[in-house]
Specification:
By secondary structure, this protein is mainly α. It has one domain (3-167). Helix content is 95%, strand content 0%. The chain is built from two helices and no strands. The N and C termini lie far apart (165 Å). 0% of the residues are buried.
Length: 168
């Protein structure tokens, strides 16, 4: 290559490099303008954000106080409920114990009453019913004897045969 063409190629590359540098400078200037615009927008929003943060802090502080009060009241309610449950448990235990005692007592009373009733039935059986049966048996024997004596004659053979057939 000759010198002249080498100079032309170098000039072209220098121009391309210059254009690239100008393009980069323009881009850098555009980024500078954008960052300035963004900085102004942020400066305008900063007081609003600070006010919002301050009101949020106040709301959080108020909420903490209210939450603490609610927590205290909830703990009091839970303590009261625990005490009531203990009382109810004691009452149920006492009622269960008393019921068991009353049932045991009632069972003893019923067993005693049944024992006495059985003794009474046995006494009535031995003292009243047995003598009545004996008297009834003696009366039946006397009736049969009187009937036999009153009849006086011998039984009719036809009647005896009928009686014997009944037992065969």
């Amino acid at each position: 290559m000759d010198e002249h063409s080498l100079l032309v190629i170098m000039a072209v590359f220098v121009v391309v490099s210059a254009i690239a540098l100008i393009f980069q400078a323009c881009m850098l200037f555009g980024m500078y303008k954008s960052s300035r615009a963004m900085q102004q927008d942020v400066q305008r929003l900063t007081p609003k954000a600070e006010a919002l943060m301050e009101s949020s802090r106040v709301a959080i502080d108020d909420s903490r106080v209210q939450i603490a009060a609610v927590t205290i009241k909830a703990n009091e309610v839970l303590d009261s409920a625990r005490k009531q449950m203990v009382r109810i448990d004691e009452l149920m235990s006492d009622a269960t114990e008393r019921t068991h005692r009353q049932l045991s007592h009632a069972e003893l009373v019923v067993d005693d009453a049944l024992g006495r009733a059985q003794k009474t039935v046995a006494l009535v059986q031995g003292g009243v019913v047995k003598p009545i049966r004996e008297i009834s048996a003696v009366a039946a024997g006397l009736r049969a004897a009187l009937h036999f004596l009153m009849r006086g004659n011998r039984p009719n053979p036809d009647q005896v045969a009928v009686d014997e057939e009944m037992f065969i």
